[in-house]
Amino acid sequence: ACVLEDEDTAAPGPGDCYGLGDVYAYSAADLAAIEHCTSLPGDLRVYADDITTIDLPNLERIEGLLYSYYANNLENLDGLSNLNYVGDLNIRYNDKLTSLDGIFGVEVDDYSLYIYYNDALCQDHAINFVLSVPGGNLDDTASWNDSKSTSYTYSNYGNCPGWNQDTAGSYGSWTDTGVDADWNGPQDTGSVGGWYYDWDTAQ
Fold first, then answer.
1. Are strands 61-69 and 44-46 parallel, antiparallel or unpaired?
2. Which of 57, 163, 166, 182 could lock onto 172 through a cystine, CB 3.0 to 4.6 A?
3. Per residue in 147-203, pLDDT tens?
């Protein structure tokens, strides 16, 4: 059961689940048990096979790690659309995941961010997510700015409109075959998070 306690007054609060430790969600029912929470004090680790999204629309803050691993039917993170802060982020081996739109712009604290081996996720989309996170940039293989840890996104093999992907190995080459509005300004050949890119000049 979720122990409710208001952070400031120590009185019960409607969604502050400060009495919980790390949450391990192996099913939709496990997520439903915390659907009232607006914040979690530890990790949220999702392994559920019976979900297509992480349906926690009230959740605004995760102090620890948001971790999705082998959630084989997870398609998107739209159910986390109100999430604005996580301590750490690790999304990997989710075979049907195609979209990170639900958490674009989320603040990630001074920890690592990993997005890899999601077979249906477009690598371009994953990189644009990194760019959306405060401090995220494409310099130094998609590292954070100087105050942040290095972030990695690679080996996401989903189809990307307008891109040619060589998926022969973890290090492939992509060539921009058209203008991609997500890239601002000219881009040179470079390495981003385990992938090598050759960009045409973007407008």
1. parallel
2. 166
3. 444 457 888 889 887 554 443 233 333 333 333 333 333 333 333 433 333 333 222
